[in-house]
Design a protein that fits this description.
heterodimer, A: 198 residues, mainly alpha, Rna Polymerase Sigma Factor, Chain: A, Arc Repressor Mutant, subunit A, 2 domains, 9 helices, B: 216 residues, alpha+beta, Jelly Rolls, 27% helix, 19% strand, binds zinc ion
């Protein structure tokens, strides 16, 4: 399953590049077929009704079309790029023109990507490490999902799962430690590759 | 370079797009100048990408693609006007805050709490968090105090110290009910801090969240 998913990611990389280079509507339709059903699932997991979910996905896809030239397959995977687009659009949905309220542009000002760092991460995520997510045991993954989709705090998750707060905290801590260790391993692997190449 | 950083739970919530207004802005301010936390946040964004990729697909309405394509054609006719960048009021401030301050740090409409400390309330306060700037006069000390809830502080200018450490520009500090401290501004200049506090009223649960964009 992991294998299939990552192939999807590479396929989407190519489609977005084609959209950027030639405004290829065929590539756009293929991207919609691959990406939209997962984006809809994300919206629904975040609490959207069916109509809101499809509106959100549509807005994201139009953003993808407009900003395809900003996607750099050397700097980020398409799934990460699509994720940041749908996360930002979800935050902004329904609060357009409310200037006193925080919008995603405030939180993630555009055009500030650290290219070198991203190049590094791309190599690593592409070649060396399969998904961080699949390395987590179910019980830890469940809690990570609650953070990403529902914005739940530790104590709310504890109440919902009927588990002691300490258990939630230690599971999340374990999950984050594992993710950080993986991230650090990536960096040491990169160092080795760089030494061998230069 | 900051010595005190947001914890990883906050960085994960930030990457998940799940921090409420004021706290999100504060983390964004820290990350702007902290490479270390920016890298951690990017890892959590990769994780977000992985999560998106791993979701079970949900079928779209049959006419979704055709609707989207016709919207695309419509958009092509009327290109989106470029949004103007917000005016820079004080170049020393982190970008995420620029839009929410009416003036430079020196000319903010400060209001006095005492002769040694003044405050300015920010418009990004919400039902869960109050956001404000504090200015402690150079060399002055606050009375010993503790906190009712969580209080996140980021140093914007100058520096202050308490029993546990010395905090400089960019440092991100969390004080809670177990913190008893007596912060003192360093002698050379006024210390300006951005603080975000749990408001007395706390709404919890999915529908109580200010951040929830689906509640319209
Ligand atoms: Zn940091």
């Amino acid at each position: 399953m992991t294998q299939v998913a990552s192939e999807t990611s590479f396929q989407m990389d190519d489609l977005i590049v084609r959209i950027a280079e030639t405004q290829d509507q065929q590539a756009f339709s293929e991207l919609v077929e691959l990406a939209a059903p997962r984006m809809k699932a994300y919206a629904i997991r975040c609490g959207a009704g069916v109509d809101d979910a499809e509106e959100l996905v549509q807005e994201c896809l139009l953003t993808v079309w407009r900003k395809a030239h900003q996607f750099n397959p050397k700097a980020a995977r398409s799934t990460t790029w699509l994720y940041t687009i749908i996360r930002n659009r979800r935050i902004d949905m329904g609060r357009k023109n409310k200037l006193d309220i925080v919008q995603s542009d405030d939180l993630w000002p555009e055009g500030e990507t650290d290219l070198l760092e991203d190049d590094v991460e791309r190599d690593l995520t592409g070649k060396l490490v399969r998904t961080l997510l699949h390395s987590l045991p179910d019980e830890q993954r469940q809690i990570v999902f609650k953070v990403y989709f529902e914005g739940k705090s530790h104590s709310e998750i504890a109440g919902e799962l009927d588990l002691p707060l300490g258990t939630i905290k230690s599971r999340l801590r374990l999950a984050m430690k594992k993710l950080d260790t993986l991230a650090k391993e990536q960096v040491s692997w990169l160092t080795i590759i760089l030494i061998m190449n230069f | 370079m900051a010595n005190y950083h947001p914890n990883h739970e906050l960085l994960m919530q930030f990457a998940a797009g799940q921090l409420s207004n004021a706290l999100g802005i504060m983390v964004a301010c820290h990350i702007e100048n902290c490479e270390e936390c920016r890298a951690v946040t990017q890892n959590y964004e990769h994780l977000g990408g992985d999560i998106l990729e791993s979701l079970e697909t949900i079928e779209l309405s049959p006419d979704f693609i055709s609707r989207t394509l016709s919207k695309l054609a419509e958009d092509a006719k009327s290109p989106e006007p470029a949004s103007a960048a917000p005016p820079v009021v004080d170049a020393r401030l982190p970008k995420p805050l620029q839009r929410f301050l009416p003036n430079t740090l020196e000319s903010l409409p400060w209001s006095g709490i005492s002769s040694s400390i003044q405050q300015f309330d920010l418009t990004i306060s919400d039902r869960q968090y109050t956001a404000r700037f504090y200015k402690i006069k150079a060399g002055k000390e606050l009375p010993q105090h503790t906190h009712k809830g969580n209080e996140y502080t980021m140093v914007m200018d100058g520096a202050f110290s308490d029993e546990s450490g010395s905090y400089h520009k960019g440092d991100f500090i969390l004080a809670d009910t177990s913190t008893h401290h007596q912060p003192k501004a360093h002698a050379d200049c006024d210390c300006i801090c951005f603080a975000v506090m749990d408001a007395p009223l706390k709404f919890t649960g999915f529908w109580g969240r200010m951040l929830n964009p689906f509640m319209r």
